[in-house]
Amino acid sequence: MSPATGRLRSPFPMSARHFLPACIAGLAMAAAGAATVEVTVQGANGKPVTDAAVFLESREARVAVKPVTGIEIEQAAKRFTQRVTIVPIGSQVAFPNRDKVRHHVYSFSPVKTFELKLYSGTPSNPVLFDKSGIAVLGCNIHDSMVTWVVVVETPYYGLGGAAGKVTLDNVPAGSYRLRTWYPGLAPGVAALDQPLVVPAGGATLTVLAASAAS
């Protein structure tokens, strides 16, 4: 209490008393602006497209993207156990071989060129994906083995399953480029691209694939 006025004093200094309401308002606006985007990827035949990578690009998304850790692309039963993997740019990927035979994993894609020569177990050095785009990977020993890595410059991405549906949560409202890629696209073809304005209430839409994919 102030001896001069008899009023209770705020425990916060004047600068903090101005800052705290602004901070609380900013948090409330951020929470209100976080939307959900639901995308269904569908072929010309009306059937869902599996393993479709869906991501939202914008200048703000490029600023917000961060590498993630712990990503693995496993080999087992003489195949890659995931067909498509999405990674934010700057992320490192480990390639554990859980087969009893050795594999020779490689990529000649411009996005990432590398070789993990005949090995068992998990190589000590993961592979850094530092350029955005699509990388196709194979095994030099087993020609039937193939997998794709989609490297994105955004934190808003997801991979569709058998139903062709992808849900992107916590997307700030705003203008984006909606990009869609799936293994059925011809080699070297870029991800499909269309504008999308995400309102505060979120968005639900269907993307028609350029060609049928299984």
Shape: globular
CATH topology: Immunoglobulin-like
Order of helices and strands: HEEHEEEEEEEEEEEEEEE
Tally of domains? 1
CATH class type: Mainly Beta
Extended strand count: 17
Helix coverage percent of residues? 10-25%
Order of strands across the biggest sheet?
Answer: 6-12-11-8-9
Number of distinct helices: 2
Mean pLDDT: 88
Give the uncertain stretches in residue-range form: 14-32
The H-level CATH homologous superfamily, spelled out, is Cupredoxins -  blue copper proteins
Helix- and strand-based class? Answer: mainly beta
What tags apply to this protein structure?
single chain; 214 residues; mainly beta; Immunoglobulin-like; five-stranded mixed beta sheet; four-stranded antiparallel beta sheet; 2 helices; 12% helix; globular
How would you characterize the overall build of this protein?
With about 210 residues, the chain is mostly beta strands. The protein has helices at about 15-35, 60-65; strands spanning about 35-40, 55, 70, 75, 80, 85-90, 90-95, 105-110, 110-120, 125-130, 135-140, 145-150, 155-160, 165-170, 175-180, 190-200, 205-210. The chain starts with 13 loop residues before the first helix and ends in a 6-residue tail after the last strand. Residues about 15-30 have low confidence and may be disordered.
